[in-house]
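Job type: complex structure
Entries:
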Amino acid sequence: MNHLLQVHSATIQFGGVKALQDVSFHLDQEDLLGLIGPNGAGKTTLMRYVTGINDSKTGHVELSGLKISGLPVYQRVKLGISMSQQLVRPFKSMSFLDNVVFAAGYHKTEKPWKTLFIKSRIQEKQRALTLLERLGIADMAMEMPEKAPLGYLKRLEVARAMAIDPKILILDEPLAGLNQREAEKLADTLSQLNQQGQSMILIEHNLREVMRICSRLVVLDNGRLLAEGSPKSVLSQSHVQEAYLGKELHVNP
Amino acid sequence: MMAYEISLLIVMGISITAGLSLNLITGFCGQISLGHAAFMGIGAYTSALMTKNGLPFFPSLAAGMLTAGIAGIFVGLCSLRVRHDFLAITTMGVGFLFLGIVRQQDALGGEMGISGIPDPGLGRIGFLLFVMGCAALVVYLSLYMKRSWLGFAFDAVADDEDTAGMLGLDVTQFKLIAFAIGTSLAGLAGGLYAHNIRFIDPDSFGFVESITVLSMVVIGGIGSVWGVVIASAVLSVLPLWFQFIEDYKLLVYGLLLFSVMRFSPGGLSALCFNIFSFFRKKLT
């Protein structure tokens, strides 16, 4: 059977640094996969490989059995892969609402020449408002992103990524910059979304929330796949603890 | 109306068309161009050669738009890989390439240019009305475009093209559309220019002209339709009113460009908006 997403031996090199070495993993329908590992482990690079921002000659990516490596970013997005960025990049000339309205209008911008003759934004506004409410940032709808706090911008990234109705939603550290209460709430929202059938990959350092909501974990360290499996089984492995916490703790757990 | 005023208004109308055509590319879609005069030149040379060979004015003007638009798409395709400063240099190169080719072609009049371009046969007032009609149409198109999803997508591309791509936007296509529409309208402005002055030479579409058009866009306020209309109208007639501005054109426009970038990067439109909101705050 085909997995929803399958990455075969991805290797990516930046100059002399091997950011990823022969990493393979898969994502199944309705999974909420946590991608964890220390800083610089290659998590973001791996996801940027999936979306096509970083491409490599070795290895390949399959979406529902269809090979998508080699396709440009926007085409992979159209096929259903959506990623929110770790470093927030809102459209600065647009309000919170318009940022999401633009994303929600993805089917209107599909045929570039036709966009000149389309004006209505009513449906997209509705959808955008619903998303902003769901993420708890509807009070900022009319504000410009320039002066907004990071916690809001993070959630704006998530809202925009959700607005294009992806098959796979990839979120890069969406909880960073949120306080514990906000983080918990957003994690709950993501968990709900997952239960409604949304397949997701979550890069996250907040292990407490990761353990609480993820169904499977993939651990990267130094560009290599360290472990894979259910959250409990993965985190009980000694080499995972070593990578995360250092060797001393392993002696006296 | 006096002949002199008619001439001024015609020059204004052509400048507004030219300014807005660059505004579509640089203002709306965020792609800087330092070679815009080349596309005006392509439109001017195409239409002038056609009318000189006995073809009627309107089809010739349309052909000028078409060739300029095709050249624009071609240049757009070639510069898809470059951004920002590099795009500025590439488009500047296109401007010089155009000059270099035109200067060497006897068929295009070489250094001597093309003189004796036929009158469009509309009469001075008729021509003025036609030019104003073109300018009004381009204003309308710009305003309409801003509210359409095309303008929305241009905003996204101008803001951050990588992010636009991450949301599934085919950025390449949108850039090409901006180039196609913007350069064909530049071709229109060029065709009108040629049949107004009835003489063109390579210097009519040189680097100084490209900078002049860019000044109109930047001073008016990058992306602001009415700002660019006003800046184009004023900047186009200033050199006709004051001889020293004509003599020191590059210096004056350079100084204006610099002051705008330094003191009000949003141009006149942002300046007006800021003054307006300042007084509104005072009043309330």
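Summary: Chain A is about 35% helix and 25% strand. Residues 89-164 of chain A form one domain.
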